[in-house]
Amino acid sequence: MGEHLTVGRVAELAGVSVRTLHHYHQIGLVQPSARTGVGYRAYSPGDVERLREVLGYRRLGFGLRAIADLVDDPDTDAVAHLRRLRGLLVEQRDQAAATVTAIDKELEARAMGIRTTPEDQLKVFGAQLYESIGSAYPATRRTEPRIAARIWEALGDARTVLNVGAGTGSYEPPDRDVTAVEPSAVMRAQRPAGAAPCIAASAECLPFADQSFDAAMAVSTVHHWPDPVAGLREMRRVARRVVVFTYDASTTGWLQRFWLTRDYLPEFADLLADWPSLADLTHAIGGRAEPVLIPWDCEDGFFEAHWRRPEDYLDERVRRAVSVWTRVGPQAEQRAVEGLRADLSSGRWAERNRDLVALDAAELGLRLLVA
Ligand SMILES: C[S@@+](CC[C@H](N)C(=O)[O-])C[C@H]1O[C@@H](n2cnc3c(N)ncnc32)[C@H](O)[C@@H]1O
What we know:
Blueprint lengths: L4 E2 H8 L3 H9 L7 E2 L5 E3 L1 H15 L4 H9 L5 H34 L6 H6 L4 H6 L11 H10 L5 E5 L12 E5 L3 H5 L8 E2 L13 E7 L8 H11 E9 L4 H6 L1 H6 L3 H4 L6 H8 L2 E4 L2 E2 L20 H5 L2 H6 L1 H17 L1 H5 L8 E2 L3 E5 L1
Parallel strand pairs: 4-5, 4-7, 5-6, 7-8
Antiparallel strand pairs: 1-3, 2-3, 8-12, 9-12, 10-11
Helix pairs in contact: 3-4, 3-5, 10-14
The protein binds S-adenosylmethionine.
The site of S-adenosylmethionine (SAM) has 24 residues, from loops.
């Protein structure tokens, strides 16, 4: 049968179980397309190549559904997959090395009787959430043009712009000289070809001299920073103007206004428990806060985006691209989704939220901080 390999042989060579290979076969991820002389299924060289890509992405922590999208992409050939895998593995290695160094430093400090601050201890792990959930991000997260227009207007005549917590590059103004900062390797690897150069760093410790940029921007990221106030002060230090898109956790009113948190996911309030007030955030940059209404057909799938399209929250892809759902845990998520599903089909949701249908935009606590 030439270069064709049996299931057992492939399992042995790749170090995975036959059960795993059968599972990949059943879900259509890697199918042994050849036959042995006696009629058993076998892996052709092409099947083996695909399996190698699947195992590579698996090792990087991608989910099977995300892997299927990646390996089915007709525009990515074997060499492009190898290049991407290599880049991601190198990033992961570098990040592990940085974590080891940080741990060594803390061990040294402890041996000398010095206690590191809680902020220092957490900084090392700040980007880890996006290392695990980041691959689901591009499915529904993109630039919303009406919010982008507000951000770009607030940047004024800035020519050089630093985008902190840049992710995959949404909201980066196309007509300015942008430098991006993003701690997660998975997010950096998903930036489109031709996107602004991106540096692996965190907001709390920006590797730039004072006043190196005309402006610094941060979009939907500050709530992920271990120390938001320190990060905002850093933005203020390196840039003359600061623009931040975030939300106001200090008013309880909007928690009650958004039906998703009010009626289905009250656990969201716990995530905000020790979040600095809007006053603390604006104070850190010495600026002001402006409300940003969310259009009913918002194109960027952040948590509040689907406020007038409740069925969207039943879609796993919509939820996986928003960290809130991972952070509340699977039990709360399942309960919220099942409750919503039941209320949508019984008409209870529509009855309770009758007034929303007439609105084109909603005030849900989103704010633009400008300094
Ligand atoms: C919801 S995404 C937003 C990405 C992008 N700004 C956008 O609007 O699509 C949050 C990003 O913040 C990044 N992040 C997490 N901790 C950070 C930190 N300490 N400093 C800077 N960015 C951080 C995450 O890795 C992630 O890419």
